[in-house]
Amino acid sequence: MASFKKSFESLKGTSHSAAKGVTDSAVQAAQDAVQQAADSSKETVSTAAQEAGRQTQSAIGKAADKATDTIKEFGQKLDTK
Q1: How far is CA 80 from CA 2, 29, 72, 75, in A?
Q2: What is the DSSP string of 36-48?
Q3: How far apart are CA 7 and CA 34, in angstroms?
Q4: CA 68/CA 55 separation, integer angstroms
């Protein structure tokens, strides 16, 4: 009976160690996945911000060109009067 109890305790310890190893691995995998998602999110936000900046610069450039054209046209109209 003592031998059975000793074997059972050994099995229990081995099972506990194995379960802890699996749990630790699962926790590490989850942490890695969360970190990758966070990194990806940062990259996505950064890329979106860069694109928004480019589009804003383009819109400002177009507005400036249009304003320049309007001023030129206005100046030409004044010259003809």
Answers
A1: 116, 76, 13, 9
A2: HHHHHHHHHHHHH
A3: 40
A4: 20
In this prediction the pTM is 0.49
* pLDDT tens figures, 6-37: 666 766 666 666 667 667 887 888 888 888 88
Q: What is the DSSP letter of 81?
A: -
pLDDT of residue 59: 92
Query: Which amino acid type is present at position 41?
Result: S
Helix (H) or strand (E) holding 18: helix 2-80
How far apart are alpha carbons 36 and 42 in whole angstroms? 10
Collapsed DSSP state (helix, strand, coil) of residue 1: coil
